[in-house]
Amino acid sequence: MKTKALKLTSILLVALTIASALAACQSKSSNGSASDTPGGTASGTTNDTASAPKEHRTLTVEVFDRGKPGQPDLNNNFWTKYVNDNFGKQFNVTVNFVPVPRAQEVDKLNVLMAAGQAPDIVFTYNQGVVYNYVQQGGLAELDSVLQQYGATLTNYLGDDVLKYGKFNGKQYAIPGKRTVLAGDNTFIRKDWLDKLGLPVPTTPDQFYDTMVAFKEKNPGNVSGVIPFGYSLQPPYPGLGYIPEAFKPSNLTEEQFATFQAQPIWMSNWNLPGYDKAVQYMNKMYNAGLISPNFAIDKDGKMLDADVSNGKVGAFITNWDGPYRTAPGTLTNLKKNVPGAELIPIDPWQNDAGKHPKNGYSPNGMYIIMPKSSKNVDLAVQYLNWMADSKVTLFLQNGEEGVDYNMVNGVPKQTGTTNSGEKMMTVANNLDYDLLSNGIELGDPQKNAAAISAGYPGFEKEVENALKVGMTDYYSLYYYSSPNTADAKYNSALTNLSAQMLAKLIVSKPADLDKLYKTLVQQYMDQGGQEVQDEYVKNYKAQNSQ
Amino acid sequence: MWLMKAMNNSAALEKRKTIENPLKRKKGFEYYIKRDFLLYLMLCIPVAYIVLFKYAPMYGIQIAFKDYNIFQGAGKSPWNDFATFKQIFSSLQFYQVVRNTLVLNGLDLIVGFPAPILLALLINELIWTKFKKVSQTILYLPHFLSWVIIGGIVAQLLSPTGMINSLITHMGGEPLPFLTNKYAWVATYAFIGVWQNAGWGTILYLAAMTGIDRQLYEAADVDGSGRLGKIWYVTLPGIRPTIVILLILQLGNIMAINFDRPFNVQNNLVMDFGDVISTYVYRVGIQSANFSVGAAVGLFQSVICLIFLLTSNFISRKLGDNGIW
């Protein structure tokens, strides 16, 4: 009886499994044919368009959904109406915006791409993702379309930016233009320096002595003083700008290109002098000068809190870090410790007496068009329209006299874009104005002034921080072909670097040299050497042409 | 849920056996369908759920054996002659994460598995029901906290400058490296697991304990057994089947490790022990879009789990206990 019933249930189960598997297959195949059909008709329409260019078309564009409380419908608001009323009318097009959650942007993009349902214009900041798509043959080639329809666009971006969208010699992406190139800044408590009568440190040695003084004299009179605040964040394992001080100033271009292929704030284990930077950090750790929680503080939140609570003497962070409204470090610090003052300093002096600073490359997000799109020409025309300075000004600021007023050539917001239909979910509306990453007024000086206007209460400080952050600025070497070994090993190696740094920083000074050699050897064995070799190969190939 | 259903079914069948006439034993397929039509219909819903969400996605497993190209899809991507598996098995990190997974899960088995049993025994001995209920509820609560929150609490409490270490230093001691020394971290990890799960784990045992016949306790009283004697000779044997089943289930999961717990508690100083299969798959498979590698590691893990489950079930049956099926 029991076995019979079991048999019965299993038969039922099997039957159901088969049935549903069949159903799944059916839906698969019907999906396939469904996607075939629009393809067929679409090629028909393209032909039609060629003969009758003014036929009405629909262009779909990705937009980041940042989930901001009170945000308007992202496909029906002041900005989308502007786009449709201008570009739309001019080209007889309806532009539809497809919201994609900001935090799951890449996952969602992968799904859309895999399903062949990606909008005509999509974008990401992640170079690895773009490169993956290129390798898998999923992106439209843009060279000829750009030449035909993209005159304003090419002119605005220039070769310096456009080249970042080239893969294997072909244009697969249109990079946005980054208007602020500064990377990090080192900040120090000016009031602590004043209290101890110390000068602003300008070399690593002076900086070290200052930190020792902070520790011993505890000018802020706080419990658990942290002279140098530091957090080791797994996605960005590095030592800030400290390695700049120990990197020889006379590297050849090839050495620079191949040894510092990653930003300085990541770990470039092959970079000459990197071992000394690690040693410097190790010395500080063993003298009790850096945050004891640096490895546990995986997202930097503890560091932010320590700075806000006035425990930290100095730290390295984004060039504008303390002035940002989120998390509002400086505002909170001033609240907690009246009279506290943070200033950007330049202590990482190299052997040539310079303070080099690795900043960002001039490219912003990668705007790409899937191969499955039938509107590549239209998409380029859209971006070309957007590259017009008048359009950019409107998309970033709104209507003059209503949403902003020009003060000394710099738009000053009236506050109408903080809520309702005109709400910008991100400063300068970067989610709609795809081409510029940051305010764009067509002039670096005006941009700088406009940038500092974006930090109410700290305008002067921000202007200064930007100046310090851009002193001796340089960007990484530009490679025309991506590193396939890096694409393969990057995440594993980044993760390994974080573990290595943690171990090296806490190691006993006597063991450091040996440990450093062992760990770097491990790194090389686990793919680091392959990545390095490919950089050398790519460099040679690029410069032999 | 499934277990309980299975148990109920077999119990019902058992009863029917005694009632039905043995001559009418042979009944056709349709007879049962007709008789229990509604029951089967209801059964269809969970079965459909399982098939749709547990079996159908297995179609995607093939990407572990392919050079997965998202534009071509799982079906059309080219086969790659086990290149993914070769890559995984030649990577040092892979062995490290497998070892760590086994170590951490083994530790959970040793420390985490007996904890709810002990706790359940203690709770069961309480006589004041109100106190019993309240303490039970308090013990459950950590189970409902997400690991992200627990990770935050742990960092605040146990970091070198955290609350507990501040207390220790104020009393003149040296701070303990709960999270920064890899050996200490493993202990911390196991302890947090017990803290979060022990209370929740007692539910099943307590339920099993209420099912023990009261007469057995009375008999033990008559035989002059004390409290400990009753626990040892009545309660524990009474819940033995439950313990065995849960042990088999946990052994079956020895290679499967939950993602949130290690991910939120680990840090870079302890990655030698803290990096496990789930975090590895997340990092390599999802973060760097090596879907084939992620799928392959996941498949490897599932196969090992299945082997463990079958083996432990087999052994348990050999030893005379009921397996899970």
TrEMBL record, chain A:
User: Bias category Polar residues: which stretches?
Assistant: 28-50
Which InterPro entries does its entry note? Answer: Bact_solute-bd_prot1 (IPR050490), SBP (IPR006059)
Top-level lineage group: Bacteria
User: Which SUPFAM superfamilies does UniProt cross-reference here?
Assistant: Periplasmic binding protein-like II (SSF53850)
Any signal peptide, and if so, which residues?
Answer: 1-23
Listed A to Z, the keywords are:
Cell membrane, Lipoprotein, Membrane, Palmitate, Signal
Q: Where is this region: Disordered?
A: 28-55
The protein's matches in Gene3D superfamilies, at most eight in alphabetical order, are given as:
Periplasmic binding protein-like II
Q: What is this protein called?
A: Extracellular solute-binding protein
